[in-house]
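Exercise 7.
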Amino acid sequence: MSGKDIKKGGRPSYSKLMLFKALVIQSLYNLSDEQLEYQILDRSSFKEFLGLKKSDRVPDSRTFWYFREQLIAFGSIETLFRSFNNQLDKSGVFANEGKMVDASFVEVPKQRNTREENKEIKEGKVPSAWQENTNKLAQKDTDARWTKKNNVSFYGYKNHVKADTKTKLIKDYAVTDASVHDSQVLGDLLDETDRGKSFMQTVPTQAKRPRKSIRQKKW
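Solution. The predicted structure, written as tokens, is:
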């Protein structure tokens, strides 16, 4: 994650707590891995939050990506996310004056597939030709989808977030392909504590059915 084993003469590993705090910065400011690296290098306040001195090395974008992928692979990222929010809630950081739900597109490189390949992908299959070519399969994204909004086409995913209206801190989230309508995820994000007039009145019927979200691409 950070270099060679110090016993073998390499550099010591980065603190996992520091890396997690960097992901917190990333989520709050909606930064890419490359932007996260740059902003930490540029802002002394970010370094201070991470416990880094001016002379300390800053992890590169690849390190942040690899750390996040490890958390996803071990199923830890959602647990850490909720634990962090619980600590904020206990400390009274969340204003709890209301919640807002919003969705934003996350575009990814467009795929150049044949019609037959796209048909198989929409059916939830992986084209056989790709399975035989692991290098090609590694470059393909079978979860992203097309959608159109205001006559503009998007290809990729949607980040659906529930945030505290005052602090703008994210309390819950879901990631889907871009074609999923915002209303279909409300049932996953809103709970009994988010009642206004009536929870049953504010959440559309079709949104109350459980929905399996796509693996999160960026946290």
